């Protein structure tokens, strides 16, 4: 009975660790997606219009404004990842 209780306690401790690891993986994927988007946008001609999704609607914007938005989102994702790494 004591072994079962010890196993249950160990499983309870590993569950938060697993969730944290899953969050880190998702954040790394999000960071990579933003990096790819920025790289692709930087290869476009500055006068070209691009579409950015806001909610369920797409808005036509300049390449520069979308790169700025993507960079902000990248910085936020990196900050969340570093916060998770410190915890």
Automatic annotation (TrEMBL):
It holds the Pfam family Prefoldin_2. GO terms for biological process: protein folding; response to cold. GO terms for cellular component: prefoldin complex. Residues 1-21 are annotated as: Disordered. Residues 24-87 form a coiled coil. Keywords: Coiled coil. InterPro entries: PFD_beta-like (IPR002777), Prefoldin (IPR009053). Belongs to the prefoldin subunit beta family. This is Prefoldin.
């Amino acid at each position: 009975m004591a072994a079962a209780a010890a196993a249950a306690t160990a499983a309870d401790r590993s569950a938060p660790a697993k969730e944290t690891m899953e969050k880190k993986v998702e954040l790394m994927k999000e960071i990579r997606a933003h990096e790819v988007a920025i790289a692709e946008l930087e290869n476009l001609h500055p006068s070209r219009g691009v579409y950015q999704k806001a909610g369920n609607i797409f808005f036509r914007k300049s390449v520069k404004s979308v790169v700025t938005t993507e960079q902000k989102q990248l910085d936020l994702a990196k900050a969340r990842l570093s916060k998770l790494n410190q915890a």
